[in-house]
UniProtKB/TrEMBL annotation:
<dbReference type="GO" id="GO:0008270">
    <property type="term" value="F:zinc ion binding"/>
</dbReference>
<feature type="binding site">
    <location>
        <position position="259"/>
    </location>
    <ligand>
        <name>Zn(2+) 1</name>
    </ligand>
</feature>
<feature type="binding site">
    <location>
        <position position="24"/>
    </location>
    <ligand>
        <name>Zn(2+) 1</name>
    </ligand>
</feature>
<keyword id="KW-0479">Metal-binding</keyword>
<protein>
    <submittedName>
        <fullName>Phosphotriesterase-related protein</fullName>
    </submittedName>
</protein>
<feature type="binding site" description="via carbamate group">
    <location>
        <position position="140"/>
    </location>
    <ligand>
        <name>Zn(2+) 2</name>
    </ligand>
</feature>
<feature type="binding site">
    <location>
        <position position="202"/>
    </location>
    <ligand>
        <name>Zn(2+) 2</name>
    </ligand>
</feature>
<dbReference type="Pfam" id="PF02126">
    <property type="entry name" value="PTE"/>
</dbReference>
<feature type="modified residue" description="N6-carboxylysine">
    <location>
        <position position="140"/>
    </location>
</feature>
<feature type="binding site">
    <location>
        <position position="173"/>
    </location>
    <ligand>
        <name>Zn(2+) 2</name>
    </ligand>
</feature>
<dbReference type="InterPro" id="IPR001559">
    <property type="entry name" value="Phosphotriesterase"/>
</dbReference>
<comment type="similarity">
    <text>Belongs to the metallo-dependent hydrolases superfamily. Phosphotriesterase family.</text>
</comment>
<dbReference type="GO" id="GO:0016787">
    <property type="term" value="F:hydrolase activity"/>
</dbReference>
<keyword id="KW-0378">Hydrolase</keyword>
<feature type="binding site" description="via carbamate group">
    <location>
        <position position="140"/>
    </location>
    <ligand>
        <name>Zn(2+) 1</name>
    </ligand>
</feature>
<feature type="binding site">
    <location>
        <position position="22"/>
    </location>
    <ligand>
        <name>Zn(2+) 1</name>
    </ligand>
</feature>
<dbReference type="InterPro" id="IPR032466">
    <property type="entry name" value="Metal_Hydrolase"/>
</dbReference>
Amino acid sequence: MMRVRTVLGDIDPAALGVTDSHDHLFFAAPALAGQELDDPAAAEAELGAFRGLGGAAVAQWTPFGLGRMAGELPALSRAAGMHLVAATGLHQAAHYAPELLERLRSDGLAEFFTAELAEGMLVGDDPDGPRGTARAGMIKVAGMFHGLDGHAREVMAAAARAHHATGAPIGIHHEMGTAAVDVLTLLHGELEVPVTSILLGHLNRFPDPGLHRELAASGAFLAFDGPSRAHHATDWRLLDCLADLASAGYGGQILIGGDNVVASSRASTGGGPGLPYLLRVLRPRIAAALGEAAADAFFVANPSRAFAADWR
């Protein structure tokens, strides 16, 4: 039976509702020092603003080791009245201390991801720390700029093994929107992950309609997730890219997210636009340009399929 795995348990995909398909409630990386998302009260306020506009769910793509604060997520979900999908996985090697990566490799990356999906996530960023009851509902991995390095291939191979063990969907960070073909070749072509379990992220950062149609033809989900303070450079091309895909018959594979990774992006406590922008500004623009049915697909129907799995 297909279910969406949230931090409070598995739910019917039809119950997921209006979804921000790629965002971050908590995030901390050395490259963004001083702009950490690490305030539970601010996260609750942001979720409240999103819910006030009709939002029902957020997929947090923050993987292990980047301040995802997994121990805070169940209480936050209850307090905000929102479904939260959390991620296991790893980002690019540059985000981690070499000794941490070596420790995770020695213990087995696939086994680590599988345990977080099936048993419960570590509540902090210490691999020796306690494990909570909240389970991850997806695996986050990352490519490099126009290619895949050894770390990316190793992590994706582990993610594929964890997928085959659990059924979990895999979301991919594409550096500046690139290397998506390489990722599909590896995950689907070589590692036999079904394309319906592959979520290609950040495609808005490489606004090439021809490439987008090629990726869509594979059957994978395509995530456009950039109207945040850090990732807004190609916002002006977004509607054109969505319209092109929809006109080619690929509207059923599009996901929309905010990808807010810095504290200044929050609408409630920073300079915005934050989570509310998706429903306050972007959804009405999509509906005006492509119709209400397309907007509902992007925010409701598509995420209910993308984040669902026949969990094993």
